[in-house]
From TrEMBL:
Compartments (UniProt record): Cytoplasm
Residue numbers spanned by region Disordered: 1-71
Basic residues composition bias: residue spans: 33-47
This protein's record includes keyword Hydrolase: no
Gene Ontology terms: biological process: regulation of DNA repair
Domain RecX second three-helical: start-end pairs: 126-166
UniProt keyword annotations, A-Z: Cytoplasm
Any Gene Ontology CC annotation: cytoplasm
Species this protein is from: freshwater metagenome
Protein name listed in UniProt: Regulatory protein RecX
Pfam family, one: RecX_HTH1
Segments forming a coiled coil: none
Length: 233
């Protein structure tokens, strides 16, 4: 027995190694996994190797980012409508004004046509309504004559037929002479023109507001007469 123990020690074995349980696969201690265990498989998840982009599809072609994906026709239409609604929140607009706004923002033609059609269908855009309100506001608030009203409407891009109809249907068109006199009253505060120079200035005022020349002359004479009548009383 001693010889066996001695021989084991003489063979270079350390004490206690006769009773150890070495790992035949590579010397790993009991209770531990080698590199081929779970840790070794950590680099592959869901069938992809470590370092492979999760956004890469199975065929190897990367999907384009959402920002680079072409918009659908419906998405382009919704974008055009959003721009148009925002433009309409400030004040009423004409069809031509909204079209120009969308063109400046590089909206494609098909989306512009579709957006304008939808806005007109639901009465967000109505050139006839716009023209009627324009005439009324400029008459009552600005004291404009029909010539300037017509010029202002044409600058908005409204069709000539709609402009002509709005002017013809103006309920105050027949009272333009009195409106011109009222414009002089508001500007001159009841003071009569003292000389021809003052009369010419009054005529230019009415011409600037869009009154025809014959209407302006008649209005100045009427205004002077009324000023004189007030002085007599």
């Amino acid at each position: 027995m001693r010889g066996l123990a001695t021989g084991g020690l003489d063979g270079g074995l350390e004490p206690g190694t006769l009773f150890s349980n070495p790992d035949p696969a590579g010397g790993a201690e009991p209770g531990r996994r080698g590199r081929g265990g779970r840790r070794g498989r950590k680099g592959r998840r869901g069938g992809r190797t470590a370092g492979e982009d999760a956004s890469t599809p199975a065929d190897g072609e990367p999907s384009p980012p959402a920002s680079e994906r072409p918009l659908t026709a419906e998405e382009r239409l919704q974008h055009a409508l959003k721009l148009a609604y925002r433009h309409l929140t400030k004040r009423d607009r004409t069809v031509a004004e909204v079209r120009t706004h969308l063109e400046k923002r590089e909206v494609d033609e098909a989306s512009i046509v579709a957006a304008l059609a939808e806005l007109r269908e639901f009465r967000y855009l109505d050139d006839e309504r716009y023209a009627a309100r324009f005439v009324e506001d400029k008459r009552r608030l600005e004291g404009w004559g029909h010539l300037r009203i017509e010029q202002g409407l044409r600058r908005t891009g409204i069709d000539r037929e709609i402009v002509d109809r709005a002017i013809a249907e103006d309920p105050l068109r027949g009272d333009e002479a009195e409106l011109a006199v009222a414009a002089l009253e508001a500007r001159l505060a009841g003071r009569a023109p003292e000389d021809d120079r003052a009369r010419q200035k009054a005529l230019r005022l009415l011409a600037t507001k869009g009154y025809a020349l014959d209407v302006a002359y008649a209005a100045v004479r009427t205004y002077e007469r009324r000023c004189a009548e007030r002085e007599d009383h």
